[in-house]
Amino acid sequence: MLRILFEDQSIIVVEKPAGVESQAVHGFGVDMVSEIRKHIHKLSPEDRGLYVGVIHRLDKPVQGVMVYAKTKKAAAALSKQVQDGRMKKTYLAIVCGKPVDNVGNYVDYLLKDGKNNHTKIVEKGITGAKRSELEYKVLKTAVISGKEFSLVEIRLLTGRHHQIRVQMAGHGTPVAGDRKYGIVDERQERLCLCAAGLSFFHPDTGKKLSFSIQPSWEF
Protein backbone atom coordinates (compact mmCIF):
# COMPACT_ATOMS: atom_id res chain seq x y z
CA MET A 1 0.00 0.00 0.00
CA LEU A 2 2.86 2.39 0.80
CA ARG A 3 3.91 4.46 -2.20
CA ILE A 4 7.11 6.30 -1.27
CA LEU A 5 8.04 9.45 -3.20
CA PHE A 6 11.19 10.29 -1.23
CA GLU A 7 13.01 8.99 1.83
CA ASP A 8 16.23 9.61 3.72
CA GLN A 9 17.37 9.40 7.34
CA SER A 10 15.21 12.37 8.43
CA ILE A 11 11.97 12.36 6.44
CA ILE A 12 9.71 10.19 4.31
CA VAL A 13 7.32 11.56 1.68
CA VAL A 14 4.43 9.31 0.71
CA GLU A 15 1.16 9.24 -1.18
CA LYS A 16 -1.77 8.68 1.17
CA PRO A 17 -4.57 6.75 -0.56
CA ALA A 18 -8.17 7.82 -0.09
CA GLY A 19 -9.86 5.91 2.72
CA VAL A 20 -6.77 5.65 4.93
CA GLU A 21 -6.22 7.65 8.11
CA SER A 22 -3.23 9.99 8.03
CA GLN A 23 -2.41 9.45 11.72
CA ALA A 24 -2.45 6.51 14.10
CA VAL A 25 -5.90 5.23 15.08
CA HIS A 26 -7.21 2.83 17.67
CA GLY A 27 -8.79 -0.37 16.41
CA PHE A 28 -8.20 -2.39 13.28
CA GLY A 29 -8.28 0.33 10.62
CA VAL A 30 -5.28 0.97 8.37
CA ASP A 31 -3.35 4.19 8.98
CA MET A 32 -0.27 5.77 7.42
CA VAL A 33 1.78 5.96 10.62
CA SER A 34 1.50 2.21 11.18
CA GLU A 35 2.38 1.47 7.56
CA ILE A 36 5.45 3.72 7.72
CA ARG A 37 6.56 2.07 10.97
CA LYS A 38 6.29 -1.35 9.31
CA HIS A 39 8.36 -0.08 6.39
CA ILE A 40 11.09 1.35 8.62
CA HIS A 41 11.15 -1.84 10.70
CA LYS A 42 11.69 -3.93 7.55
CA LEU A 43 14.65 -1.75 6.62
CA SER A 44 16.14 -1.77 10.13
CA PRO A 45 14.75 -4.68 12.19
CA GLU A 46 17.22 -3.98 14.99
CA ASP A 47 15.97 -0.40 15.47
CA ARG A 48 13.63 -0.44 18.49
CA GLY A 49 13.17 3.32 18.71
CA LEU A 50 10.99 3.84 15.67
CA TYR A 51 9.79 7.44 15.44
CA VAL A 52 7.21 8.73 12.98
CA GLY A 53 6.25 12.35 13.44
CA VAL A 54 2.93 13.58 12.01
CA ILE A 55 3.47 17.05 10.54
CA HIS A 56 0.14 17.70 8.83
CA ARG A 57 -3.09 15.80 8.31
CA LEU A 58 -5.51 14.89 5.54
CA ASP A 59 -9.12 13.83 5.95
CA LYS A 60 -9.60 10.07 5.63
CA PRO A 61 -11.39 10.23 2.24
CA VAL A 62 -8.75 12.55 0.74
CA GLN A 63 -5.87 11.24 -1.37
CA GLY A 64 -2.65 13.21 -1.23
CA VAL A 65 1.06 13.87 -0.75
CA MET A 66 2.25 13.85 2.87
CA VAL A 67 5.59 14.24 4.62
CA TYR A 68 6.40 12.50 7.91
CA ALA A 69 9.44 13.05 10.12
CA LYS A 70 11.70 10.18 11.14
CA THR A 71 13.42 12.17 13.90
CA LYS A 72 12.18 14.63 16.53
CA LYS A 73 14.59 17.26 15.20
CA ALA A 74 13.09 16.98 11.71
CA ALA A 75 9.57 17.07 13.15
CA ALA A 76 10.27 20.33 14.97
CA ALA A 77 11.78 21.94 11.85
CA LEU A 78 8.92 20.87 9.58
CA SER A 79 6.27 21.90 12.11
CA LYS A 80 7.81 25.37 12.23
CA GLN A 81 7.54 25.58 8.44
CA VAL A 82 3.83 24.80 8.74
CA GLN A 83 3.42 27.54 11.36
CA ASP A 84 5.40 30.04 9.28
CA GLY A 85 3.47 29.25 6.11
CA ARG A 86 6.56 27.98 4.28
CA MET A 87 5.08 24.54 3.64
CA LYS A 88 2.91 24.95 0.54
CA LYS A 89 0.01 22.66 -0.35
CA THR A 90 -1.89 22.56 -3.62
CA TYR A 91 -5.15 20.68 -4.06
CA LEU A 92 -7.21 19.58 -7.04
CA ALA A 93 -10.96 19.18 -6.70
CA ILE A 94 -14.01 18.59 -8.82
CA VAL A 95 -16.78 20.86 -7.57
CA CYS A 96 -20.47 20.91 -8.40
CA GLY A 97 -21.25 23.96 -10.51
CA LYS A 98 -18.78 26.75 -11.25
CA PRO A 99 -17.40 29.49 -8.99
CA VAL A 100 -18.51 32.99 -9.99
CA ASP A 101 -14.94 34.03 -10.83
CA ASN A 102 -12.36 31.92 -12.64
CA VAL A 103 -9.72 33.04 -10.13
CA GLY A 104 -10.69 33.98 -6.61
CA ASN A 105 -10.03 34.14 -2.90
CA TYR A 106 -12.33 33.06 -0.06
CA VAL A 107 -12.01 34.40 3.48
CA ASP A 108 -14.43 32.97 6.04
CA TYR A 109 -14.62 32.27 9.76
CA LEU A 110 -14.98 28.59 10.58
CA LEU A 111 -16.24 27.05 13.80
CA LYS A 112 -15.40 23.42 14.52
CA ASP A 113 -17.78 21.10 16.35
CA GLY A 114 -15.37 18.44 17.58
CA LYS A 115 -18.11 16.33 19.13
CA ASN A 116 -19.82 15.81 15.78
CA ASN A 117 -16.68 16.11 13.58
CA HIS A 118 -18.31 18.98 11.69
CA THR A 119 -17.31 22.55 10.80
CA LYS A 120 -19.45 25.46 9.65
CA ILE A 121 -19.05 29.04 8.44
CA VAL A 122 -20.07 31.60 11.07
CA GLU A 123 -19.94 35.35 11.61
CA LYS A 124 -16.69 37.01 12.60
CA GLY A 125 -16.48 37.42 16.35
CA ILE A 126 -18.18 34.15 17.27
CA THR A 127 -16.28 32.51 20.13
CA GLY A 128 -13.95 29.83 18.80
CA ALA A 129 -14.26 30.88 15.14
CA LYS A 130 -11.00 30.95 13.17
CA ARG A 131 -10.17 33.03 10.12
CA SER A 132 -9.81 30.74 7.11
CA GLU A 133 -8.48 31.67 3.69
CA LEU A 134 -7.88 29.89 0.39
CA GLU A 135 -7.16 30.79 -3.21
CA TYR A 136 -8.65 28.95 -6.17
CA LYS A 137 -8.39 28.81 -9.95
CA VAL A 138 -10.88 27.13 -12.29
CA LEU A 139 -8.96 24.91 -14.71
CA LYS A 140 -11.89 23.63 -16.80
CA THR A 141 -15.64 23.08 -16.72
CA ALA A 142 -17.93 20.47 -18.25
CA VAL A 143 -21.58 19.48 -18.31
CA ILE A 144 -22.10 15.83 -17.36
CA SER A 145 -25.58 14.28 -17.44
CA GLY A 146 -27.08 17.75 -17.49
CA LYS A 147 -25.08 19.01 -14.49
CA GLU A 148 -22.18 21.44 -14.54
CA PHE A 149 -18.89 20.54 -12.84
CA SER A 150 -15.57 22.34 -12.55
CA LEU A 151 -12.00 21.17 -12.04
CA VAL A 152 -10.46 23.60 -9.56
CA GLU A 153 -6.92 24.12 -8.27
CA ILE A 154 -6.88 25.28 -4.64
CA ARG A 155 -4.11 26.64 -2.45
CA LEU A 156 -4.66 26.75 1.29
CA LEU A 157 -3.42 29.85 3.09
CA THR A 158 -4.62 28.51 6.44
CA GLY A 159 -5.14 24.95 7.63
CA ARG A 160 -8.53 24.40 9.26
CA HIS A 161 -10.67 21.34 9.91
CA HIS A 162 -12.40 20.32 6.64
CA GLN A 163 -11.54 23.80 5.32
CA ILE A 164 -11.75 23.24 1.56
CA ARG A 165 -14.91 21.15 1.83
CA VAL A 166 -16.65 23.69 4.08
CA GLN A 167 -15.65 26.81 2.17
CA MET A 168 -16.39 25.44 -1.30
CA ALA A 169 -19.80 24.22 -0.13
CA GLY A 170 -20.46 27.50 1.67
CA HIS A 171 -19.87 29.42 -1.55
CA GLY A 172 -22.26 27.26 -3.54
CA THR A 173 -19.89 24.77 -5.19
CA PRO A 174 -19.50 21.70 -2.93
CA VAL A 175 -16.81 19.15 -3.70
CA ALA A 176 -18.26 16.30 -5.76
CA GLY A 177 -18.86 13.20 -3.67
CA ASP A 178 -18.85 15.07 -0.35
CA ARG A 179 -21.56 13.35 1.69
CA LYS A 180 -20.92 15.51 4.75
CA TYR A 181 -21.08 19.00 3.25
CA GLY A 182 -22.28 18.46 -0.30
CA ILE A 183 -25.18 17.06 -2.25
CA VAL A 184 -25.77 13.34 -1.82
CA ASP A 185 -25.52 11.57 -5.17
CA GLU A 186 -25.44 7.78 -4.93
CA ARG A 187 -23.63 7.57 -8.28
CA GLN A 188 -20.64 9.49 -6.87
CA GLU A 189 -18.78 6.98 -4.73
CA ARG A 190 -15.66 8.98 -3.84
CA LEU A 191 -14.74 12.46 -2.63
CA CYS A 192 -13.11 14.23 -5.57
CA LEU A 193 -10.46 16.07 -3.58
CA CYS A 194 -6.72 15.43 -3.80
CA ALA A 195 -3.72 17.06 -2.09
CA ALA A 196 -1.83 16.95 -5.38
CA GLY A 197 1.20 19.12 -4.57
CA LEU A 198 3.47 19.67 -1.58
CA SER A 199 6.63 21.76 -1.24
CA PHE A 200 8.84 22.47 1.76
CA PHE A 201 12.48 22.85 2.77
CA HIS A 202 14.48 19.84 3.87
CA PRO A 203 14.91 20.07 7.66
CA ASP A 204 18.64 19.23 7.46
CA THR A 205 19.93 20.69 4.21
CA GLY A 206 17.48 23.55 3.67
CA LYS A 207 17.01 22.46 0.05
CA LYS A 208 13.54 23.09 -1.37
CA LEU A 209 11.69 19.87 -2.20
CA SER A 210 8.54 19.67 -4.32
CA PHE A 211 6.32 16.66 -4.99
CA SER A 212 3.16 16.11 -7.01
CA ILE A 213 0.78 13.27 -7.80
CA GLN A 214 -2.19 12.67 -10.08
CA PRO A 215 -5.65 12.14 -8.55
CA SER A 216 -7.01 8.61 -8.75
CA TRP A 217 -10.20 10.07 -10.26
CA GLU A 218 -10.50 11.72 -13.66
CA PHE A 219 -12.44 14.80 -14.73
From TrEMBL:
Catalytic activity reported: a uridine in RNA = a pseudouridine in RNA
Transmembrane segments: none
Domain Pseudouridine synthase RsuA/RluA-like as annotated: residue spans: 11-169
GO MF: catalytic activity, acting on RNA; pseudouridine synthase activity; RNA binding
InterPro entries: PsdUridine_synth_cat_dom_sf (IPR020103), PsdUridine_synth_RsuA/RluA (IPR006145), RluA_PseudoU_synthase (IPR050188)
Family: Belongs to the pseudouridine synthase RluA family.
Name of the featured protein: RNA pseudouridylate synthase
GO biological process: enzyme-directed rRNA pseudouridine synthesis
Phylogenetic classification of the source organism: Bacteria, Bacillati, Bacillota, Clostridia, Lachnospirales
Pfam families for the chain: PseudoU_synth_2 (PF00849)
Organism: Candidatus Lachnoclostridium stercoravium
